[in-house]
Amino acid sequence: MTNRWPALAAAMLLAAAARPADVVAQAEKGPYARIAILRPHNGDTVDFEAGYIRHLEYHRQAKDTWGWYGWSIWAGERQRWFVYATFGHSAASLDHPVPAAEDERDNVANVTPHAEFAGNALYQFLPALSRGTGVPTPTPRVEFTTVDLNAGAGKAFEAALGAAHTTPQDETLWYRMVAGGPAPRYVCLRPRPSLASVLEGQGEQALPEKVQTLIAKTTIEILNFRPTMSYGIAMSR
Questions:
Q1: Residue 6, SS3?
Q2: Which of 12, 27, 71, 124 sits in a 20 to 30 Å window from 187, CA-based?
Q3: Shortest CA distance to 71 belongs to which of 235, 237, 196, 219?
Q4: How many whole angstroms separate alpha carbon 94 and alpha carbon 127?
Q5: Is 220 inside any structural domain?
Q6: Which domain holds residue 91?
Q7: CATH number of the domain that residue 48 is part of
Q8: pLDDT band at residue 200 under the 50/70/90 scheme
Q9: Which of left, alpha, beta for 88 (phi over 0: left; psi -120 to 50: alpha)?
């Protein structure tokens, strides 16, 4: 029995060394997030949701190490659209998702017959302006604010927000868009346990008066967390 342990240990070391580099890179942590939007076809919501859940099964079979949040837009002009997102990645890990060709084939088979891709952007978490880790707590509701600035106003916006910044009472996560839409753009996520807590915290989410002249457009939406349309994410209790 004792003679087996060196061989077993060597086999374990070889197996670890043989692990694909992309699996290691995929698990690396960092400040980057991907937030994307799907628009279900009119009258096709039920089939879309069933197809998206089937697509998540592909991620399970592919042993995806990323967590994927799924939210439905409950309040906003994009009501019933679907937001899916992943957080806490390094730049290197973004180059190593699940196999792209296989992921696309499964998307075409299960998702695109029932929805259109309406946006896909990369963001960087801004811890100095935030309260939280940059990976949202999976709560039943999320206040999702998108701030589009006037051209060239990004640095002034961050400086003004930082100068007026007092640490929020509750989780408040600011991200700067890196690529994927009109710039400069920022989003703020405020995970909350209920609609009442979103409404009661309205004063806390108000932007400082001095940044108003920098802003071209602000959009505030409320999202509902969809546990069955998420992957690797457990609802916070």
A1: helix
A2: 27
A3: 235
A4: 20
A5: yes
A6: 29-229
A7: 3.30.70.100
A8: confident
A9: left
